[in-house]
Write a structure and sequence with these properties.
Elements: E1 2-5, H1 16-30, H2 35-49, E2 54-61, E3 65-72, E4 85-87, H3 92-100, E5 103-106, H4 116-125, E6 129-137, E7 140-149, H5 158-217, H6 221-285, H7 287-318, E8 326-329, H8 330-340, H9 342-345, E9 349-354, E10 361-364, H10 366-383, E11 388-396, E12 402-408, H11 415-418, H12 438-448, E13 452-458, E14 462-469
Parallel strand pairs: 9-11
Antiparallel strand pairs: 1-5, 2-3, 2-7, 3-4, 5-6, 6-7, 8-10, 11-12, 12-14, 13-14
């Protein structure tokens, strides 16, 4: 007897054993990023959850080929290759589960209409009843989980089938993230190789430039003048190159952050799901028990909310788009930057926020403005050697433009240096502590938004940076 089941709800676990098994699976999955380990944990965990002797995970390759990626118990190394790789056309039950994105049930394999390939595997594994759960992520089927009984045929309850498919859908996130992690790892390795190659080429170019300069120094005054004329373009080239490197870093950081956000959201989903399940369970257990655990439940919920805020902040800081027509909420951007720098501020610097009562919104690029303000705030934090104060004031000028003043009680800047702070590669920091690009990039971003960047500083008393932005960019 064969059935195709449509799942419309997410059933809550009906026993302490199921809850404990789900928690065990969740903890095991989030403890590793290894792709093969994740699949084996899912195979073992699902077999334990539904109390079934055999499990196997087949992943879809090129929409035609099936690759065996995990099995419970593991296959004998001497097992034929047909058990490890097969065509979907030879396995109609897997094909049906993948095409319909629904659970397929075979209650008695002896009476079922099976293909030759299916019958061969079922006889080798001595399977009596089978469940096929598709792994679906964002409406894309990644593969299928096959659970089977070996000792005798089994009649599965609707709860078991629905619980199995629901958990399989949730675990598809872990499979997707494991694939994403592998892709990010390959991307990182390729990026490192590309950077090393470019660095090598740049070193060779610098050496050639040194030789050329040495030769030019031996020439007459006319060649010396020509050399001076070339210094300007060379400086601009270095500045442009530095800007491009910084842009590539931000793109790479955005890619990595997206992967990290996925990895963090994965355990968050499990924690949130476990929280909801426990909340329902304790409420059903009586008021006395719920009161005893309510403090711990509130702590779990608050922790999930805080981590979600951090992930949101990372995504805002690293988002890379060329659009200049996004709604930029100034107070949210400032708060996001402060959150990113919290580890450098806490227990050392008091932040005083004197925000305008009216929400300040301009048209621009959210990611770039996050980068600009975090550079300004980071300079303020670094200027305060021990403890101090950073005040942030926002408001509107008489022309309707937005004004943001960030003042620190740090060491200040000499008057002669203030005019140079936005020059590329110019820094007042000690060697090795600054690149001289932060305020240069910030100045460029503010200009792109049609704004102005102003500095006022006194040595030993602190610095005030004023940013003036129009409500609509040019």
């Amino acid at each position: 007897m064969e059935k195709s089941l449509e799942i419309n709800s997410s059933p809550a676990p009906e026993s302490i054993r199921e809850v404990n098994t789900l928690i065990k699976i969740s903890r095991s999955v989030i403890s590793t990023l290894d792709y093969e380990k994740v699949l084996q944990i899912i195979s073992n965990g699902m077999a334990e959850l539904l109390e079934i002797e055999s499990a196997a995970i087949y992943l879809l390759n090129n929409n035609e080929e099936l690759l065996l990626s995990a099995a419970t118990p593991p296959l004998d190394p001497e097992m034929p290759e047909a058990f490890r790789k097969a065509l979907m056309i030879d396995h109609p039950h897997i094909h049906r589960a993948i095409e319909t994105k629904q659970t397929v049930l075979v209650e008695k394999t002896r009476k079922a209409n099976l293909s030759v390939a299916e019958r061969t595997i079922i006889e080798a594994r001595q399977l009596q009843s089978l469940l096929y759960f598709p792994f679906v992520q964002e409406n894309i089927v990644l593969g299928v989980l096959i659970l089977g009984t070996c000792n005798q045929a089994k009649t599965f309850t609707a709860h078991q089938v629905e619980l199995g498919q629901t958990v399989a859908n949730q675990l598809s996130i872990a499979i997707y993230n494991a694939l994403l992690h592998d892709d990010l790892k390959r991307h990182r390795d390729n990026l490192e190789l590309m950077v090393n190659e470019k660095t090598h080429d740049l070193d060779e170019a610098i050496e050639e430039l040194k030789i050329t300069n040495q030769a030019l120094q031996e020439k007459n005054e006319i060649i010396k003048l020509r050399n001076k004329e070339l210094r300007g373009p060379l400086k601009n080239l270095r500045a442009t190159q530095a800007m491009l490197v910084q842009s590539e870093k931000m793109v790479s950081l955005g890619t990595l952050t997206a992967g990290v956000a996925h990895e963090i959201n994965n355990p968050l989903n499990y924690i949130s799901g476990a929280y909801q399940g426990l909340d329902v369970y304790f409420k059903k257990s009586g008021n006395n028990i719920y009161k005893e655990v309510s403090l711990y439940m509130d702590a779990i919920r608050e922790g999930v909310e805080r981590i979600s805020g951090i992930v949101k902040g990372l995504n805002q800081f690293t988002r890379q788009t060329g659009k200049m027509d996004e709604d930029c909420v100034i107070h949210s951007i400032l708060d996001n930057c402060l959150m990113m720098l919290n580890s450098r501020i806490v227990d050392r610097i008091d932040v005083v926020k004197l925000y305008s009562k009216k929400s300040l919104v301009i048209k621009g690029n959210v990611g770039k403005l996050n980068q600009a303000f975090i550079n300004i705030l980071l300079n303020a934090v670094q200027a305060i050697e021990n403890s101090g104060i950073i005040s942030i004031r926002t408001g509107l000028n008489i022309k309707g433009g937005v004004i943001i003043e960030i003042a620190d009680s740090g060491i200040g800047i000499r008057e002669d240096d203030i005019k140079k702070v936005t020059d590329p590669f110019y820094t007042t920091k000690d060697p090795g502590k600054g690149t001289g690009l932060g305020l240069s990039i910030t100045h460029t971003i503010i200009k792109e938004h049609g704004g102005r960047l102003l500095f006022d500083s006194k040595l030993g008393k602190g610095t005030t940076v004023k940013v003036v932005l129009p409500v609509k960019t040019k």
